[in-house]
Amino acid sequence: MTVAAAGVASKNVRLIAETAQLIQELHASSTSTSVLRSGSVAKTPEAPLLPPPLPPAPPSFPSKLQDHDADPFLGNGPTNHSEWQHCFDAIGSRAAYATALYGTSAAAAEDAFRWTHVNVIYPFLIPNLNNTCLNAADMVYRRVVVGATFVDYPERSKIMHGNTVNGGGPRAPPKWRRWPWTEVLHSPSWGRGMVDEQLWMYVARGSGLWFNPGRVLELSDTSDLAIFLNASYSARHTGSKAVLMQLAVKRLSHQFDSVAFAYHVDGGCCHRMVMRELISLHNFSKTCPVSPSMARGWPPHNLRPCNCTPRVGVC
Questions:
Q1: How far apart, in whole angstroms, are the C-alpha atoms of residue 140 and residue 254?
Q2: Which of 244, 248, 277, 249 minimizes the C-alpha distance to 263?
Q3: Residues 6+ apart with CB under 8 A from 266
Q4: How far apart are CA 46 and CA 31, in angstroms?
Q5: Residue 41 banded pLDDT, cuts 50, 70, 90
Q6: What percent of the chain has pLDDT over 70?
Q7: Are 165 and 235 within 8 A, CB to CB?
Q8: What is the CA 195 to chain-centroid distance, rounded?
Q9: Domain of life here (predicted)?
Q10: Which of 200, 84, 99 is nearest to 149 (CA)?
Q11: For 98, which DSSP code?
Q12: What pLDDT band is residue 7 in, cutting at 50, 70 and 90?
């Protein structure tokens, strides 16, 4: 999908038309299957109907006309923690950092990239960064995650069910809406056994890697997806989440393009953080590019395909 096409797709006129079609498809859905803990398959009732969609999520980074950010889960304000920004010349390095990260001067415009609206940074791109200061700053996660350093994130201890793997956040019915190009973290080398079958990502502003999620089903965490699909699921069983997502692809991919977990408690990563997980229902992580919906650069007019030439193979 081209950038122009993605922009057209986000217009309300098309969204209204798709809403009517989705409601019709949901009513026409036939009985589907669910996956049991043992791996067997049993007939279950279809998933419950969804309410009308939320308004489309705001477009990418802030602009002169609207102060929106790239993470639909975060609302319209900047991130909550800024202590780490005192560890380097934030004003003087902004333009050079943005150009280096996004590969275009469009990101360095005054109304484009902002330190106040990122969740992750790449310290090696920041000149004269005081690493001792950075590592001591509030809310800096000292373990590198998919090559990036988190500098702002929700804490597990401050959300409901923060100690429950794949069950974080409140138990609530799902919502859905169309998302814009969203910055994500993804690496095919993470989570072997799942990434070959599905495309898993973390939502992370400032990553430099963009994904076009399309129509997104929003839930708190994995257990809520199991409830919505009326499927038996246990986080204790290795591989059960991948099997659950296979079921989601079969039953939901004609209605939605992606599934998002707003309060994901990951069992193998990031033990202080609440992760925002995004899973595509149409793309698979095997070779570069892992998805035609991934791009690098700066939206909406400066996005480029991933560079899959030999010795690069990354976005």
A1: 39
A2: 277
A3: 165, 273, 275, 277
A4: 5
A5: very low
A6: 68
A7: yes
A8: 15
A9: Eukaryota
A10: 84
A11: H
A12: very low
Put residue 230 in one of left, alpha, beta given phi > 0 → left and psi -120 to 50 → alpha: left
Q: How far is CA 314 from CA 25, 188, 258, in A?
A: 37, 10, 22
Closest CA to 221 of 179, 184, 174: 174
CA distance 153 to 272: 9
Q: Identify the CA nearest to 205 among candidates 95, 80, 90.
A: 80
For the whole model, what pTM was predicted? Answer: 0.78
pLDDT of residue 20 exceeding 60: no
d(CA 24, CA 49): 10
b/e per residue 133-166 (b: at least 16 CB within 10 A): ebeebebbbeeebbebbbbbbbebeebebbebbb
- Determine how β-strand 214-219 pairs with β-strand 258-264: parallel
Half-sphere exposure of 216 (CA within 13 A, CB side): 29
Contact 68, 121 (CB under 8 A): no
**How confident is residue 77, by pLDDT bands cut at 50, 70 and 90?**
low
The reply to whether omega before 300 is within 30° of 0 (cis) is yes
Report domain extents, the chain: 3-304
